[in-house]
Design a protein that fits this description.
heterodimer; A: alpha+beta; Aldehyde Oxidoreductase, domain 3; Aldehyde Oxidoreductase, domain 4; 28% helix; B: alpha+beta; 16% strand; globular
Chain lengths: 780, 161
Amino acid sequence: MGVEGIGARVVRKEDKRFITGKGRFVDDIKLTGMTHAYFIRSPHAHAKVKKIDSSAALKMPGVVAVLTGQQLVDDKVGNLICGWAITSKDGSPMKMGAWPAMAPETVRFVGQAIAVVIADSKNLARDAAEAVVVDYEELPAVADMHAAIKPGAPQLHPEAPGNQVYDWVIGDEGAVNAAFSKAANVVKLDVTNNRLAPNAMEPRAAIADYDTAEEHFTLYTTSQNPHVARLVLSAFYNIAPEHKLRVIAPDVGGGFGSKIFIYPEEMVALWASKKVGRPVKWTGDRTEAFLTDAHGRDHITHAEMAFDANNKIIGLKVKTYANFGAYMSLFSSSVPTYLYATLLSGQYNIPAIHAEVIGVYTNTTPVDAYRGAGRPEASYLIERLMETAARQLNVDPAQLRRTNFITQFPHQTPVIMAYDTGDFNASLDAAMKAIDYAGFPARKAKAKADGKLRGIGVSCYIEACGIAPSKAVGSLGAGVGLWESAEVRVNPVGTIEILTGSHSHGQGHETTFCQLVAERLGVPISQVSIVHGDTDKVQFGMGTYGSRSAAVGLTAILKAMEKMESKAKKIAAHALEASEADIVIENGEFKVTGTDKAIALPMVALAAYTAHNLPDGMEPGLKESAFYDPTNFTFPAGAYICELEVDPGTGKTSFVNFVAADDFGRLINPMIVEGQVHGGLVQGIGQALLEHAIYDANGQPVTASFMDYAMPRADDVPSFNLSHTTTLCPGNPLGIKGCGEAGAIGASAAVINAITDAIGKNNLEMPATPDRVWRTIHAA
Amino acid sequence: MSTVKLTVNGKAVAVDVEDRTLLVQLLRDHLNLTGTHVGCDTSQCGACVVHMDGRAVKSCTMLAGQADGANVTTIEGIAKGDELHPMQAAFRDNHGLQCGYCTPGMIMSAIDIVHRHGGQLDEATVRTELEGNICRCTGYHNIVKAVLDAAGRMKVSQAAE
C-alpha cells in the first residue's frame, strides 16, 4: 500500500470545495432567462380534481404560464413507471395504477401535483399559485394498511381491487410446515417497521433548458443515476430521444435511495421548458420533500421461527404487509420482495423458509428504496426474533446466534441467495470483546443500584450488496441490467481521467477511485481526476445505490485500467526494446524488471498520442473502457452491540456504548468506510428511537417538517466504537463487499433489543420514544 | 423594494430587494454567495448559518432588512486566501463531511461554538451546542471530532496572534 493507495486513509480531494462554500449543487446554478416553477399540490389525500381556474394567476406580474395535468395528457407525456415486474402467487402480474406526473382527474395523496406555475421568480410563482382556484371533490381516503385491505375500504385504483399490489411468495411452504410440525419450540413475533422520510439534506431540485435550435434538452438534477434518469425520461416519458437529452447530476447533497427515482417534477420541468421557451428551475422545500420524496420501510409482519430441542432453527415463516403508498415508485416492487425476503435467512443456517408479502396501496406518499431497502426490514425482523427466542428459550442471545451461524461457505439459503464467504463468529467475537460483554451483568447491577435499567442488545446483520448480476436480476423481473461502466483516459501529458457511471453524493468517489489508480500506477492522486454525473461526458452507466460503487463501479475501473496498462506495457516494451512480459509498473514508471531501464508514464502516453514509434499495427491513443457485470451479490455482514440505560421514571434512553464490527472485505479508504458506517448507524438509531412518518386516518401527513419529524441530532446519538474483521469477497478481484448501508441495516435491532432487555418486556415498537418506552414499562 | 446596505465578507454592498427577501436569498440570489444553503425553511437544520456581527444566525429565518448595517460573514469569507480557517481544516482532516450540503452551516455554527466556549469544550458540550444543525450523512461522530480538534487549533492560533 502506498501513501495514497488501497487501504490508505487519504483525506478527501472533494472536500476543499465543500468547506469553502464552492460546491456546485443544482440550486446554485443560474441560467440566462431562467424561470421558476412552483407546483400546486393536493391538500387532500383522495379527491377528484373538478376544475382548475388559473385566470387570475395568469394576470399576475411575472407569470409565464400555468400548466396542468390535462396538458401533459394532451402532449402524450407518459405516466411514471415501475421498473421491476413482480408476479403474484396466482401467476398474475402486479397491479399498477396509472401515475401521471400531474394528476388530470384524481389525486391520491397529499402533495400530489396537479398543476405548475411558471414565473420570473420563485416568489412570484408562489404568489400566483395562491391565486389558482382548484375545485376538488373529496373522496374517502385510507392511510392505514390494515384498513386498506378490509372489504369496503376506499379503493385507490380500478386496476387494483382490494388495494392489493401483489400477493407474492417465496420458499417451500411444505418444508416449512413439516419443520413446524416437529418443532420443540416455536417463537412468534409481530413487528412493525416504521415508515421513514429519507431527508437528504439537499432538497430535490431540477433545472431544465430546452435549446430550440438543436431541439435538445439539458437537465440538471439531483440524481444518484443520471443515465438511468435519461433512459427513463426518454424511453418511457417521451420527453426526448436519448441523444437529444443531456442529464447532469452535479454535486448532490445526499441521496440514501431517494434520488434514484425519476420524479414528476423533473419531467414537468423538461416539458415546461419547451412549452415556455425558457429554462425552468424547480427547487423543492423541506415540506415538499416530506410530501413527495419516496418514503422508506413501512412493513407490518408476523413471523414464526421453529427450533429443535438443541436450539437449532429448523424453519421460519413470515407474512408481511408492505405499504406502497398511492402509486408504485420506480423500484418499489423489488424492495419488500427480492431485496427483503431473500435476506430472511440472516446469518443463520435455516433449512426451510417461506415468506408471503402482500403489497398494499394507501393514500400516502409512495414508498421505495431508502438506505438498505428491504434488507433493514429483514435484518430487524430476524434479529428481533433471535433475541425473542433467546429470552423464551432462556439461553444467552449471543450463544443462540453462534449455535445457528452459517460456518461453511458457499452457503445456499432457501431464499435464492448463495452466500459466498464470511466469518460471523469473528465479527461477533470482535464486538463482544469491544463492549466487554462478559462484564455486562456487573454493570447492569451497578446501574440498578443507581436507579437505572441497563440493557444490552446484539444484532448480527447480513446484506446483499454489489447490486447486481444482470442475468440474475433480469430473471427476477428487473427491467434493467445492473452492471457498471468505466473509462480510463491517459492524456498525452500523462495525467489521468477516470470516467465512471457511478455517482458520488457524499461517498467520496473522487478520492477512493483515485486510490485504485495510485495503487496500480504509483502516481499521486493529484494527477488523477474522476469524471461522473454527466451523460454527455460519461458513457452509459447505472449509478450509485445498493452499496455497489466500490464492488461494481470500482471493479469496472479496474477492468478498464487492466486494458490500458496492457497497451501501455506494449508501448513501453517497444520503446525500451524489451519483452512486454518483463515490464513492471512502479512509481509512475514502466520498468524492465531486473534492470535500470525505465520509461515514465508521461513518455508512454506521449508516445501513444504522437504515434511516431508504436508497435506495428497498434492504434494510437491510450484510452480504454470496460463494462463489468458482477458474478454474484456481495454479502457484507457484521455484529453490532448496543449498551444503554433507560430511566424508568421518564422512559428516556441514554447510550452507554455502541460497538460495530463489520466485514466489508477489502477497504479502499478506511476513513471513508468508517464515515459510511457512522452515518448508517445513526439512520438505524434514528429509526429505532426517533423517526416516524405519520399519517392520520384520513391520509393527512402529521410529520411534514423538521419541527414535527424527529431527525437524529448530535445530542441524540453517541460516538461509536468501530472495528473490522475481514473475509475477502471472492466474487470480484478487489475482494470488496460494500459498506454504504450496513449501519442502517444492523443498528435498529441492536437498539430495540437493548431497550427490551433493559425494561424486561419484549413488545416494543419503533420509534421507541420515551413516551412509548414509559408506557411499555408500566403496561400491565 | 428597499435598499439594504451591509458588509459581507469585508466588502460593503448595497442591494435593492423586495421587503420580504430573506437574508439567505440576498446572499445566494443577489450576491451569488451560494455556499450558504437552505435545508428546511423552518430554522431547524442550520444549513443556512452565517455570522452577523460575530454571532451565528440562521439566514433563512431573517429578513435581509434585519441585516441592514450589519457585518455578515459567510462560509466564503472565513479562509485567509489559500489558508483555510482552522475549523475548515479540521472538518477536512477528520472527515467531518460527506455530501457537503450541511457543511457550511456546520462550520459557521462550530466556529461560533468555539468562540463562545473558548477552551471549555468537551464532547457532550459540542453535541448539545450542535443541536441546531442537522447532518444526514456523517452520524455526527466525525463532526464532533472535528470541532474538538479545531477548538485546540483555534486556541493555538489565537495564542500565536
